[in-house]
Amino acid sequence: MRSFSVPDRIVGWALPVLAILAEGALLAVAYIAVEVVIDHRVPLLGTLELAAAAGLAAVSVRRRWVDPDAAPTGFLALLAALGVAGWLWSAEARDLVLAGNPVDALAHHPGGWLMVVAGMRGVGRAWEVDDRAVTRLVLGGLPALAIPWAFGQLTGPVDLRPVFTDHAFVASLTFVTTGFIAAGLARLQEIGRETGVDWRRDRSWSGTVVGVLAAVLVVGVPASVLLGLPGSAVARGILDPALTIIGYVVIGFATLAALAAAIIASAVRLTGFELPLPTPQELGGQAITDTYTLDEVRGALTGLGVLWIVLLVVTVVLVRVWLRRRSPRVRGGPTDERRIQLPQRVRRMRPAVAAVLARRGPVRVHDAVTAYLAALADLAGRHDDLARGEHETPRAHARRAGLGTDLDALQADYALARYGGRRLSPAEDRRAIRRWRRLRSRPTGPDRRPTLGA
User: CA dihedral in degrees (213, 177, 308, 327; nearest 10)?
Assistant: First the structure.
């Protein structure tokens, strides 16, 4: 199921991205516990950095830049590069390396080891995201979160426990949000593979996302109150990767702007013109420079992140509507072709209705499927207009025949068993046989059509 629409491809990319973010968030909780309890420091890495390591490994294996089986040397080099990036994320570790103590740098920051683990975990997301794998990640990760939480709350330093609670709560909420959304989208993908329906074009994916977000808010807000965290912690838990990306973008633009300003100032000074130096505010003969802590600007950054997310969603919706309206249409008919694709296990089931009736004669009724086939044979024998057409679906035939709920229920059982690959219960088979008998015993009118009266 390949889609050539840009919005559909963007929605399709959401599934592997969310699965990788869930991997990063789960590792982030473990990293936060180690940093706070063992190293007595504020965590430096977060969900986005660990997820980026897993995503880089996944893309490298997907693009066949590295092959863990055929060429393990390249894969080990990739893991080593990720580990070095994690270790050098700490300024103290960088100072130790520059001082000629690389061994001490390895033990100084455990983020390098977690980056290596993230790269190894990303190999599993290199190919198509599997429904069962994502479900195992969520169902196994939820109870696994209790280990770092207990480790951080019971053995962590008293002065750093609020730091651990804040960072671990945000990462845990990110794991729950991204993990359950990824599991829901993976399940829709599996259903679409069996039925031939592209889940990216179905509205059910948006309902899954909205439902998970609503559940996270219902659980996250009371949990943040019990832990003594501000309400913005819930928003950061849902939007933490996006907020981190916005932070890196702002830092990047600020760095480029500072570099450009330095180059322009140097060029101006070469002409002999001296720029005036900036003067700080003065109060009582003392210079005053306003400084802000991260906690003071965190609310503003969260609001900015929410604004950008809303703008992005609105832009994607508007672009999708615009592309649909601008798409070329063939005059005189529809532009798409619809078909039903049966699962592999369904193709081994009994042949079509007409073939069964022609080759085997009367149907021996023993379950819901044979009850429906026998009902079709009885109706076709009573009146020609009640026969099911060759290309008519069971639902359309039952609606056209208008014989009440008995035939409707029979066609529903048949559709579930044949097209849905579902195994009906013995109780449902017995109910279907009773419905067939009621249809068969109905009196006929002057035109030999069965009447609705029993």
Answer: -80
Angstrom distance (rounded) from CA 90 to CA 106: 11
Helix/strand/coil for 178? helix
Region 295-303 average pLDDT? 61
Q: Give every CB contact of residue 382 below 8 A, 6+ residues apart in sequence.
A: 444, 448, 449, 450
Mean pLDDT within 341-357: 45
For 73, residues 6+ apart whose C-beta sits below 8 A from its C-beta are none
Measured distance CA(363)–CA(91) in Å, rounded: 79
- The answer to whether 452 and 446 have CB atoms below 8 angstroms apart is no
User: Which one is predicted more confidently, 450 or 168?
Assistant: 168
Cα 385 to Cα 428: distance, rounded to the nearest angstrom: 28
Task: Show the tokens assigned to 363.
Answer: 């149907």
Per-residue pLDDT at 272 exceeds 60:
yes
Distance, CA of 408 to CA of 439 (rounded, Å) = 11
Q: How confident is the model at residue 154 (pLDDT cuts 50, 70, 90)?
A: confident
Please compute the mean of the pLDDT values over residues 97-115 and round it to a whole number: 80
pLDDT given at position 128: 63
Residues 6+ apart with CB under 8 A from 28: 43, 45, 46, 47, 50, 167, 171, 174
Q: Is 116 helix (H, G, I), strand (E, B) or coil?
A: helix
| Global pTM value | 0.57
CB of 107 within 8 A of CB of 74?
A: no
DSSP 276: P
Mean of the pLDDT values across residues 430-442? 85
Q: Which long-range contacts (CB under 8 A, 24 or more apart) does 260-265 make?
A: none
Confidence of residue 4 (pLDDT cuts 50, 70, 90): very low
The secondary structure element, H or E, covering residue 217 is: helix 204-226
Taking a C-beta distance cutoff of 8 angstroms, is the pair 122, 55 a contact? yes
Q: Does residue 282 have a pLDDT over 80?
A: no
Burial environment of residue 126 by CB neighbours within 10 A (0 to 12, 13 to 18, 19 or more):
buried
The string of DSSP letters for 294-342 reads: HHHHHHHHHHHHHHHHHHHHHHHHHHHHHHHHHS---TTS-S-------
Q: Give me the count of residues in the chain.
A: 454
Specify the pLDDT at position 256.
Answer: 86
Give the contacts of 413 (CB within 8 A, at least 6 positions apart): 368, 369, 371, 372, 424, 428, 432
C-alpha triplet 96, 36, 239: angle, nearest 5°: 105
pLDDT at residue number 7: 55
Name the residue type at position 314: V
